[in-house]
Amino acid sequence: MNRRTLPMILVVVLCVVALCMSLAGRKVSAQNVTALAAPVYNPYPPGILPSDLNPELARVLREVNFVETEAIGQWHALPPPTLTGNPPILQNTGVASVEILGKLMNFDKNISPNKNTACSSCHMPYAGFSGPIPSVNLTMIAYPGSEHFRAGKRTAQRYTYSSYFPPLQYNATQGAFFGGNFWDSRATGYLLRSPDAEQSQFPPVDPLEMGNPDTACITYKLSLAVYRPLFEEVWGKGSFAISFPANTASICATPGGAAVFGGSATPVMLSADDRGRQVQVDGK
Ligand code: HEC
Fold first, then answer.
1. Quick one: which H or E segment has residue 15?
2. 154 CA closest ligand 1 atom index
3. Average pLDDT taken over every residue of the chain
4. Distance from the CA of 149 to the center of ligand 1, in angstroms?
5. pLDDT in tens, 183-218
6. Is residue 132 very low, low, confident or very high in pLDDT (cuts 50, 70, 90)?
7. Exposure of 227 by Cβ count < 10 A (0-12 exposed, 13-18 middle, 19+ buried)?
């Protein structure tokens, strides 16, 4: 073999390997699309759902997975905060721990019944915390929730300021209403004195969004999350001292509104104490 042939053979071998890899990649993504396209709910007239919806949802899910993995890496790299002082406060890396926990929860697709929708699926940072699929933004506007293709009527709000909005109030000088959360301010904040805290109770159990049948499902899924130790570090060791019944997993894998629940909003049977603890975790 002369000095020229060897590099030529190497180049040919590399090209064949690259071709095989790209074909294999295509096969995988085609399978994903089929998996997503299989048993879907599509009551719409032709032309409402954009034709690239399945590959776009698959792309967004890949991005969500990537950021979640990144956040897990950031959590592992972070020295644990020290709980000290009076009142006790998480010092040093405390703020970073809370921020990373927020990122982990925001990009956690496992919180949805079909394990396919994270909060960020509709509220993506690079889209100003709104929806990241151009064809959806130009057509159906609302984003498919965990149960494809149930979708709401509105576009996802860009929510970075929502925690600063005051409870809904009428300003007599301006002659207009101010405050509240959601497009129509229906999360008024009247009960909790924080519209954002009130608002946050809804997306996880909205049948058109995350679609959980019971708020207890969020607590249950957080108790199984890989980042549970970080949650307990931030919110306290006893956070998940709750006895979940054996059928919790199957209840929580069924989207909210399913006929099997007979209209119940709390199908997970918990003792009164455990329900109280669960509501506390969900409020975080
Ligand atoms: C399927 C898409 C979708 C998912 C998933 C979703 N949202 Fe939303 N979000 C919306 C839509 C649509 C609105 C506006 C709803 C309305 O006004 O009725 C909204 C509104 C909000 C608001 C109100 C912002 C404001 O300024 O009033 C916040 C905060 C929010 N979502 C947080 C979340 C969180 C946290 C999660 C995950 C637990 C989540 N969302 C999951 C679509 C989604």
1. helix 5-37
2. 12
3. 86
4. 17
5. 999 999 999 999 999 998 888 898 888 889 999 999
6. very high
7. buried
Domain extent listing, the chain: 39-152, 160-205, 212-284
Q: Whose CA is nearest to atom 9 of ligand 1?
A: 156
Report, as an integer, the average pLDDT of 145-155: 87
Question: Which of 159, 206, 210, 218 has the most ligand 1 atoms within 8 A of CB, as the residue to mutate?
Answer: 159
> Among 8-12, 27-31, 228-232, where is mean pLDDT lowest?
27-31
- Is any atom of ligand 1 closer than 6 Å to the C-beta of 152? yes
* 203 CA → ligand 1 middle, Å: 6
Q: What is the DSSP string of 31-95?
A: HHHHHHHTT----SPTTSS-TTHHHHHHHHHHHHHHHHHHHHHHHHHSPPPEEETTTTEEESSHH
| Position in ligand 1 atom list of the atom nearest CA 183 | 17
Ligand 1 pocket check: which of 111, 112, 182 to mutate, most ligand atoms within 8 Å of Cβ? 182
Over 90: is that where the pLDDT of 18 sits? no
What pTM, to 2 d.p., does this model score?
A: 0.83
CA angle 226, 229, 231 (to 5 degrees): 95
Is residue 44 scored above 90 in pLDDT? no
Confirm if 229 and 261 have CB atoms less than 8 A apart: no
Distance CA 154, CA 150 (A): 12
Q: Is 177 helix (H, G, I), strand (E, B) or coil?
A: strand
Q: Tell me the percentage of the chain whose pLDDT exceeds 90.
A: 67
CA distance 121 to 145: 9
* CA of residue 60 relative to chain centroid, distance: 12
> Between the CA of residue 86 and those of 73, 89, 91, 230, 265, what are the distances in Å?
31, 7, 12, 22, 40
Q: Which two tokens mark 206?
A: 């909205």
